[in-house]
Amino acid sequence: MEYDDKLVRFRQGHLNPFDKQGGAERHPADSEAQPPKDSSTISPHSIPEYHCPDRVMDLGVSEDHFSRPVGLFLASDIQQLRQAIEECKQEILELPENSDRQKDAVVRLIHLRLKLQELNDPLEDEPNLRILLEHRFYKEKSKSVKHVCDKCSTFIWGLIQTWYTCTGCSYSCHSKCLNLITKPCVRSKVSHQAEYELSICPEAGLDSQDYRCAECRTPISLRAVPSEARQCDYTGQYYCISCHWNDLAVIPARAIHNWDFEPRKVSRCSMRYLALMLGRPVLKLREINPLLFNYVEELVEIRKLRQDILLMKPYFITCKEAMEARLLLQLQDRQHFVENDDMYSLQDLLDISSGRLGCTLTEIHTTFAKHIKLDCEGLLL
């Protein structure tokens, strides 16, 4: 009893100003030793009315001033955590919409799910570099949750999961998904092949694919049973929803044959390939579609400017002042412009269509001509 008397005196003099929950249970000794208080008086050991100590969901996640640190769960196995998650989900549905109690329950649900994920996929010491099917995977240090695994199509939880990104094609995936990858890095295809599919959506039909995804060979169907078939506008092939996320990209064949730059839906593999090929000058327009120059005036203007620059190039190579001023480096992002006048990249065509390339190339042409006609002392002598 001496201990209880001391505890009562301590509680009388030490109220918690941050505990705003009312209507809590108190020890019987408290009722006898203290006079009745106003209903606004705050109890130091108040417990929210939705707290139920018998439920699994409250193990280790309910907060009080004498509890374990945040994140320390008493539930030790996966089955208990799953039961706690289900209870928490049910409570969220029963609580008033947008209430503080519902928000607190959502926070507890997040903590429970993170703990379950941690138990399912514990952190391990992983190497910083993994080489697989010509991919060069480097371990990522970002803790952001804005990334999605390219293999399993689920979120990458950087706080508790190890994940990698290929430096060649930007393929991102969980460490546990690395050994499930079946496709080689598309950068190797860019290095060895370096050419576009120049037919517009060359469809062969699902039967030619044996009604399977062109990449992972998952069974697919146009009726979405067992899995939806999505067509890639670049290859014309069909893919499952894990390999085709409805990403949009400009199709080279449509740009060359129709001067059409509207982005269309492509598979993940095609999107990475087109991104790597975007700046490569592999399109010889005069051979692929010579009539294009009759209908697109901007192409004629660009070709004339490029021809003039090629005529100026020998002067700059022999001019000491031009070499010191590094005039030709103004075209370092489009090196092919000082090598020939007939090769184009898809990025060139995009910039021609938008008008950016015409303005930029005209300014560079003016600078080159000014140096030759007015500034170069060697030519003026």
From TrEMBL:
It comes from Xenopus laevis. GO terms for molecular function: zinc ion binding. Keywords: Metal-binding, Repeat, Zinc, Zinc-finger. The keyword Repeat applies. Residues 134-185 form the Phorbol-ester/DAG-type domain. Residues 1-49 are annotated as: Disordered. InterPro entries: C1-like_sf, DEF8, DEF8_C1, PKC_DAG/PE, RH_dom. The keyword Ribosomal protein does not apply. The gene is def8.L. Belongs to the DEF8 family. This is Differentially expressed in FDCP 8 homolog A isoform X2. Positively regulates lysosome peripheral distribution and ruffled border formation in osteoclasts. Involved in bone resorption. Gene3D superfamilies: 3.30.60.20.
